[in-house]
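[09:14] KT: can someone run the structure on this one? pasting the chain below
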Amino acid sequence: MEDVTDLLNRIKNQIGGEESLSDEELNRQLNAIYSIYAAAMGPEQLIVQASRFNAVKYIHDENPKSRLIGMERLILESRDYHRQPTDEEIPAILDKLEDKVADILSRQAVERSLEKKIEDRLEERHKEYIEEVRREIIEEETGSAETAESKRPHLLALSAAPSAVRPARRRQDHRSAPCTRRGEEKAVHRLSKRRSLYRV
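[09:31] RB: done, structure tokens below
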């Protein structure tokens, strides 16, 4: 940015030190301004601007004063420029073009600075969000582990209880089996006696 500004200042000083510019010097000045403008706009935007304001045929003209018309159309963004300037008018026109290019560069510098600040802020917030999510996951995992640890003695007690109960039930079933058979025999005997009474 500083190198470009210095170049523009040198161009202005050279223009101000001469009453009129030769064609060679004018071409040199126009080439310098055009290079800075093209670098600032980029190739795609440069083509769009040149086509929009019909500046292409003027910019590539061999006559430097015709080129100056094309530069006015391109940089000042207007189709109103069509008359070749006089020698006395050229320094003021070059000053206007340089001021416009300087404004473009200054605006781009501000935009880049703002974009950098926005990117830094977004990156900072993204890191904060990731850290917050990481803490939540750790807390959830730690809480789940503590809950599982607290339930483990109870689960062990439940898993051990059936093994102690089942043998007792089997022993109880073996002891009660003879009583059950005797009850069934008595019931069958009573039923057979009733049937014999009905037959008589």
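[09:33] KT: thanks! The chain has a mean pLDDT of 77.
[09:34] RB: yep, looked fine to me
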